[in-house]
Amino acid sequence: MLKEFSKISRVDGLLNLPGDKSISHRAVMFSAMAEGTSTIENLSNAEDVRSTINCFKGLGCSFKSDGGRLKVSGKGFKGFNKPSLPLDAGNSGTTTRLLCGLLSMQDFESYIVGDSSLSKRPMKRVMEPLNLMGGSFKATEKFTLPLTVFPAYKPKAIQYIMPIASAQVKSAILIAGLHLEEETVVREMVQTRNHTETLLGLNCVKGEGYTDIYSSKSNYPIPGEYFVPSDISTASFFIVLTLLAGNNSQLTIKNISLNSSRTGLLEILKSMGARIEITNEDKKMGEPFGDVTVYSSSLKNIDIPSELIPNIIDEIPILAVAGVFAEGDFKISGAEELRYKESDRINAICSNMKLLGLNVNETEDGFVISGQINTSDALFESYDDHRIAMAFGIMSSLLEDGGRIHDFDCVAISNPNFLNQLGSIIP
Ligand code: S3P
Question: Distances in Å between the alpha carbon of 401 and those of 239, 324, 373, 375?
């Protein structure tokens, strides 16, 4: 679908957004693993989370909507059924990589498939540490999907130093570790999102410049009542729009996840001059949340500290949009991981920004954007990547003559109601 946006004059309103996608994947997975019934409130309605649910249906779990909650009947320790069909992870890297950890410790063989974007994404990063734990896989020559997961031979706990900053890889190892008596230890040199640790209550010990995270069978999930705070990555598009829309724009978004491994965008925007206020803070199952109110503000670009990159990894497309409207050049580096997302996001952002007549210098691990917008007919590509589509939807809503985006439907991967939500905050 080609989607057209006109310039908006102002933002005003209140948003309630669905649950965080990362927390939702884990709430579904841990509920499915636990023996008995768990409930999940404010679960994400993202297609990615639907993919996780479908995979667990294939493993014998049942799901039932109960008012605003999802009821999950979990199968217990090694209680999953051998799937009779391939497990389809759709577009979701989190589903695939976390499942690799879980399935490698089951007593049956399984087969994971995905869409064309997911089938290009690297799986070696998760296969290597799981191989050290006894896990065994067959992927393509390029270490991509489709992937056969064989039962681990002589499974064993490991001590693993993370060679890249990846919450998905970290989580896969920790989830595999839940099946072993001995403790598995993952050492993380740079903090990535910690929802796996938080929801499972894992022991995390901070050293100088690293954190060690411990998992063993004693941490295997039991049934729970999950509350999923609203998705800060989904909120980021509306936050940046409000900041840039001018005319005394203001927006409150309720119950946003405020986990410190995810709030880097808010910190960076505040340092750029954004007026952002947080109220009604609370915490459930270790996950903090609160209401975020944003006011239109003048922004100035700053140096973005490289240790914050994993924290803002999903927000860089929309941060780049903020950077274009801020004073000074926008610069990001140390973000090579962006090349391995749903699209090569460095290339996708740079190509779209060039269409606006901006000066763009693309490097291996980032880019610099300078100059002035100089076009009256912006036609962007989504690269079938939900975050690129939404970032350039917001960009289009800020352009004097509006803009259009090819293949906009992919936004449903994380937020099927993006357009309705946007419509509801434009007076
Ligand atoms: C996620 C981790 C991040 C993030 C992805 C969700 C997760 O990926 O980009 O959208 O839920 O663990 P990496 O761990 O590969 O960086």
Answer: 21, 16, 11, 9
